[in-house]
């Protein structure tokens, strides 16, 4: 035994962000050893089975696999669940860790479920005075009643990485966009197009400094829509820190913290806004955003001098501190 803390690094998942999650997990795994941790790689395949640290299947069925992975988790000190999207970021993995009694990085069950649901996130944000784009909820039963009266953005309620998101500028495009989104989710959000700069900010719980808001990041996209293709083809540029006035930074920080607290987030969350002529409008909340060294969140904190391994170290230590506090409160 090395005596180092063992960190279960979970990647993959049963959703459209499987490959994105694998990239996050691989990057984190490579960075943990220099940070003084022993990384234990676990992968969830698309069919729900798990691969162990040796990349061999754990059990012959999903049920056997899940039973086996609980044994692996019991030998780890903390879990870094790097799944993005449904059956992972939505509180599913947090629930598994809770039941297994293992500390984990990131949002607790309720916060993950609420933040993944874009419709509920809107309701929570509006309740605490944070503006969102006007919009409505659409199901398959509503298709015949949806009327196009202005450009809109169509989004699956609980898909991540902008999968299924389409900008609809003409009436003939609306039904195909809705049907495509409904292939990914049984509920779809249709929002008015918001004109403004896309500015993101990340909140982390730092064991050394308390709750910490990173420098704002502005996404610069030529065609104005930061969709799945643009996110991963390298055509988008990031400006850190975003060019904001002192008053704008104050408003952004206040809005982000209000949403973070109202949802019950913990550990970290990237909170995305549009800066319009009337101020900030919430776009969405990611409780487990992309975490490769080149992803937005590590880049934000690197701009403040916090290296990628140092950021991971802060997140892990924060999870352990939160667990100790929870145990003390229960006891």
From TrEMBL:
Gene3D superfamilies: 3.40.50.20, ATP-grasp fold, A domain, ATP-grasp fold, B domain
Protein purpose: Cell wall formation.
Species annotation: Actinopolyspora mzabensis
SUPFAM superfamilies referenced in this protein's UniProt entry, alphabetically: Glutathione synthetase ATP-binding domain-like, PreATP-grasp domain
Protein name: D-alanine--D-alanine ligase
EC number: 6.3.2.4
UniProt keyword list: ATP-binding, Cell shape, Cell wall biogenesis/degradation, Cytoplasm, Ligase, Magnesium, Manganese, Metal-binding, Nucleotide-binding, Peptidoglycan synthesis
Cofactors: Mg(2+); Mn(2+)
Gene behind this protein: ddl
Keyword Coiled coil belongs to the record: no
